[in-house]
Amino acid sequence: xxxxxxxxxFGTRPEAVKMAxxxxxxxxxxxxxxxxxxxxxxxxxxxxxxxxxxxKPDFDLNIMQPRQTLSSxxxxxxxxxEAVLEQARPELxxxxxxxSTTFAGALAAFYHQIPVGHVEAGLRTYDKYSPFPEEMNRLxxxxxxxxxxxxxHTNSTNLEKENxxxxxxxxxxxxxxxLQTTVKKDFTFSQAVLNQLDYQNQxxxxxxxxxxxxxxxxxxxxxxxxxxxxxxxxxxxxxxxVHLSPVVQEAxxxxxDKHPRIHLIAPLAVDEMHNLMAxxxxxxxxxxxxxxxxxxxxxxxxxxxxxxxxxxxxxxxxVRLAGVEEQPVFQMAARLLEDPxxxxxxxxxxxxxxxxxxxxxxxxxxxxHFGLREKPPAPFAPRA
Length: 384
Ligand code: UD1
Ligand code: UDP
Hints:
By secondary structure, this protein is an alpha/beta fold. Helix content is 45%, strand content 15%. A 7-stranded parallel β-sheet has the order 3-2-1-4-5-6-7, sandwiched between helices. The structure holds uridine-diphosphate-N-acetylglucosamine and uridine-5'-diphosphate.
C-alpha cells in the first residue's frame, strides 16, 4: 500500500511540546509515512523537548542565532525548506500555532504547492501588534492553509467569520495530550531547589515572561510587581525558569536577582515544568501554553498581557488578565495570596482546551482527507 507522506515542521519549544505527541501518533499509523523537519528556531529549548518525547527529526535546518530578528528566522526557514521539500516531497505539511517558523514553513509549502495543515488554528486577538508578531503569523497561515485543526469551538467560529469554511476540525489542543504523559504523582526534580521547596506550607508562584511585545517597559513593570510581591509576602517562593533570550535574561537579572525567595533558574525540561505546575500555588505568565496547561491542573493563572487569544479559561474563571502595569499586577496577585475565597474561586480544574485525544482526532482527520478512513472524527466538546 502506498503511504501518504505527512511532514511536521516546527522550531520552537512550544511548537515541539504540542507537535511531538502528534508526530508520534502519525508514526503509529500504517497508512502514513511520518516525516519531521525542525527549523531549530530554538536550539537548546527545542532539543530538550525532542529528547523527552523521543522524537528524532529527519531534517534539521539549525537556523538559530543569538538575538535573531524576525527577518532572519523567516528567510532562513524559507530558504532551508526549499531543499527539504524537494528531497522529501511530502503530500501534506503540518505547521503549528503562530511562530515565525509556522509562517515561513507554511509559505515554503505553498511555494511548492504542497497542502498545509494548521494545528492550533483559529486563535485570534484581533490586534495585529499584540501578540507581536504572532497574531499576524496566524492570520497569514489561515490564508495559506488547506486543513484547519482548531482546539476549540470558538477557534472554528473565528475562522468561519473570516470565510474559511472547509476542512475545519475541532480537535482539542495537543498540549493536553502532552500533559497526560508528563505529570506524575511521585516526581523528583533535577534542580535541587525544586525538591527543597515546601509545596504544602509555602505559596509557590510559578512565573514565566518572554513575549516580544513585553520587552522594555512592560517587562520592567511586571518584574517590579513580582519583586514587590516577594517582599510583601514572606510565605511566597517565586520560581522563574528564565527563557534563554538575552533580552529576557538581562531583564530578569536586573529586576529579580539576589532575592532570597525568588529563584531564577534555567529553562525547565517540559516534564519538570508540568510537574512544577501541578504542585505550585499560582501561575503568573505571558505564555500561551501555560494558559492552557495550568487550568487543566487546577491552578489559577494571572496573565501578564493586555489581551488573550485564549478566552475559554477566562470564561471558566480560572484565568484572569492582569495586564502589564505594576500596580494592577501586584494587586491582583496580592488578593489571591490574602483572600482564600478569591483563590478558591479560581482554583478548580477545567479542561476547555482538550481531553487528551487531539492527536488521534488530527491523525484521523488526515486519514479521512486522503480517503484512508470513511468518516471524519467527531469534534472535541469539553465536558459541561
Ligand atoms: C519565539 C516565538 C514566540 C513563542 C516563543 C516561545 C516568534 C517570532 N516568536 O519567541 O511566538 O512564544 O518562541 O518560547 O516566532 N535562544 C537561545 N536558545 C534557545 C532558544 C532561544 O539561545 O533554545 C535565544 C536566542 O538568542 C534567540 C532568542 O533566544 O535569538 C530569541 O528566540 P526567538 O525564537 O527569536 O524568539 P522567542 O522570544 O523565543
Ligand atoms: N515550558 C517548559 N519549560 C520552561 C518554560 C515553559 O517546558 O522552562 C513549556 C510549557 O510547559 C509549555 C511551553 O513550554 O508547554 C510553552 O512555551 P513558551 O511559554 O515558551 O511559549 P508560548 O506558549 O508562549 O508560545
